[in-house]
Amino acid sequence: VDACISAADYLMAKGLHSKGVFRVSGNAEDIDALAAKLLVERCAVHEGADVDTVAGTLKKLLRCFPETLFT
């Protein structure tokens, strides 16, 4: 949950004015690496991270929840 909050906070600060956020795919390797880093190190998304990568990471993390958030 902390990883999702970190990614969402970053997107609120940097990604609201990005065109196609959540539709444009980030680099798959970068998404996997950022997700692993956020989950293992419990750190915040670093300044200057690619918005599309952070959005893809958030989507990946949300898909890993044991129960669906929306029905």
**Major β-sheet profile:** none
Question: Which range best describes the helical content: under 10%, 10-25%, 25-40%, 40-55%, 55-70% or over 70%?
Answer: 55-70%
What structural class do helix, strand and pairing data support? mainly alpha
Q: What is the number of helical segments per DSSP (H or I, 4+ residues)? A: 3
Question: What is the helix/strand order?
Answer: HHH
Description:
The structure is a single chain. The two termini are 19 Å apart. This protein has 3 helices and no strands. By secondary structure, it is mainly α.
Concise overview:
This protein has 71 residues and is mainly alpha-helical. The protein is built from 3 helices and no strands.
List the helices and strands and how they pair.
Elements: H1 2-14, H2 28-41, H3 51-63
Q: Which key features would you list for this structure?
A:
mainly alpha, 71 residues
